[in-house]
Amino acid sequence: MIQRLLLFYLIFTIKICTARRRCVNNGVLFNEKIIRSPIVVYGEVVGKRVYLDSDTELLFNVSFRVDCILKGPDIQSPIEITDAGIKSGHTACQWLDPGYLYVVFLEKWGVHANGYRPLDFQERLVDDVTTDELQKTCGLMKIPPLYSATDRCPQVSNSTYCPLDAYDRSVAPEEQPAQNRNPQVKQSYFDHGSLFQLQSNITVPREGSLMAFSGGLHNNHACSPTISGVLFFIIPLIMINIF
């Protein structure tokens, strides 16, 4: 009888733990994220404010400096990104740590002109791999934000891989009609299958990030002390009853 009660308690504890918040990557390839996103921007996180921290969600707002519009309409920098983080009903999470450059996949949200929210995709940290993928993904724009005096756009849709991308992405926003700035992302001649590998199922936060301590710490490991404690008492009791 005691063994059954202890076993039930252990199963119940594990079930509760699995319901706690966690980040799962959906394995969507980089170019597929771009195709499925109405707005894709490149820039830096300049501020981050957590407004909900619970067992199931960790949500925050972000101030984002837009350096370049890779897909979508005219945008005036900076923008506000809301409902980012670990969101109920979403499979992917966002980290968006201040001081880093990201490619972010967004949709318009809210009544404010500069209000946006992330789609159910994790952002891409700008590193050597992302820089390479931007050059090998066809159909991307290279448009600075409205009223920007500086062009911080990265190199995108390199002609070596995208010979059909004929339009000039360096044209200033006021010189290029807005209705012509959102072409469908074309399939690259580059073999995406060998470049864009599926991501790991579980998202691992970078060391030292805010999310690693305030979110990731008790996303995947919140129940570890609980389970360890339960096992510490249950296993000896079961052994006593057996022998």
Structure description:
This protein is of the alpha+beta class and about 240 residues long. The protein is about 25% helix and about 20% strand. The chain has one domain: OB fold (Dihydrolipoamide Acetyltransferase, E2P), CATH 2.40.50. The protein has six helices and six strands, in the order H-H-E-E-E-E-E-E-H-H-H-H. The protein has a five-stranded mixed β-barrel. Keywords: Signal.
Core attributes:
243 residues; single chain; 6 strands; 25% helix; alpha+beta; OB fold (Dihydrolipoamide Acetyltransferase, E2P); 21% strand
Short description:
With 243 residues, the chain is an alpha+beta fold.
Number of strands: 6
Q: Cα distance, first to last residue?
A: 15 Å
Beta-strand proportion: 15-25%
Low-confidence stretches: 12-20, 169-228
What's the quaternary structure here?
Answer: single chain
Total of helices: 6
Q: What is the topology, as strand order, of the major beta sheet?
A: 1-2-3-5-4
Characterize the overall form. Answer: globular
Give me the Rg, rounded. Answer: 22 Å
Can you summarize the main beta sheet? 5 strands, mixed, barrel
So, CATH architecture?
Beta Barrel
- What letter string, H or E per element, gives the SSE order? HHEEEEEEHHHH
Q: Which structural category do the helix and sheet elements fall into?
A: alpha+beta
CATH class: Mainly Beta
Q: Give the overall pLDDT as a whole number.
A: 74
CATH topology: OB fold (Dihydrolipoamide Acetyltransferase, E2P)
* Count of folded domains: 1
